[in-house]
User: Which sequence fits this backbone?
């Protein structure tokens, strides 16, 4: 990538959102600081109904409204520290190398208070983990047709994303440095702490993931929704609210 190409890059940072105001109030000024020397927009993508939160489709819909040529899927509870890089060249980037789970006052959580599968993140995030934050060029997103919109709730869509990259011949790179604070909420990554109907969504998603290749052609281009955009009054920050997701394939 040439220097002139880099100067033309614009980042569209997608934050899927529902009921995490305290996280958002921390995240927006932090991302504004991180990206202050780049062209960027932050799109808060809120699901505007009472159905189970659909992480895949809040991200899919937001990319339909993105104006940048670089897509950053950025969950609201991943707070970047100073060693995180959002640079990208020819392959998708996983910028998170380490994750520190913190309390509401940003002090480290007790190890026993961290869900079991995440307790080793302070010494390195599993290379197979594709959740949290991922950076790609718009052409990468188009190649994989985004995320499978048939997933409901939370979970499985990140693993499906990993396979879509593989099937499309892309080889995402995990940065060698990059520490995120994983902001506190009671059900941090612990499916057992979620309501029963959310757990069922996850179980159904596991069954779909077992046949993920069958659905690899279904993605963000197959999704429609009722969408409203609201003026935020904050520089470079857009807010869209979506509901009534429909999938045509």
Assistant:
């Amino acid at each position: 990538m040439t220097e002139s190409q880099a100067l033309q890059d614009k980042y569209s940072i997608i934050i899927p959102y529902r009921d995490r105001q305290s996280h958002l109030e921390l995240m927006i000024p932090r991302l504004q600081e991180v990206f202050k020397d780049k062209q960027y927009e932050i799109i808060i993508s809120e699901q505007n109904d009472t159905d189970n939160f659909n992480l895949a489709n809040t991200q899919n819909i937001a990319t339909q409204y993105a104006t940048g040529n670089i897509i950053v899927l950025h969950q609201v509870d991943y707070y970047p520290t100073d060693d995180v890089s959002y640079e990208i060249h020819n392959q998708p980037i996983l910028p998170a190398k380490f994750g520190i789970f913190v309390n509401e006052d940003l002090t480290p959580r007790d190890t026993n208070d961290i869900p079991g599968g995440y307790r080793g993140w302070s010494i390195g995030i599993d290379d197979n983990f594709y959740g949290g934050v991922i950076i790609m060029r718009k052409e990468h997103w188009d190649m994989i047709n985004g995320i499978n919109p048939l997933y409901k709730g939370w979970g499985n869509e990140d693993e499906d994303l990993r396979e879509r990259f593989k099937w499309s011949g892309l080889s995402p790179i995990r940065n060698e440095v990059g520490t995120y604070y994983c902001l506190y909420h009671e059900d941090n990554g612990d499916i057992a702490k979620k309501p029963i109907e959310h757990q069922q969504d996850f179980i159904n998603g596991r069954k779909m993931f077992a046949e993920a290749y069958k659905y690899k052609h279904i993605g963000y281009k197959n999704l429609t929704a009722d969408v409203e955009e609201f003026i935020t009054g904050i520089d470079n920050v857009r807010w869209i609210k979506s509901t009534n997701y429909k999938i045509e394939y």
Summary: The longest helix spans residues 21-34. The mean pLDDT is 92. The radius of gyration is 17 Å. The helical segments are 3-8, 21-34, 55-65, 138-144, 157-167, 196-209.
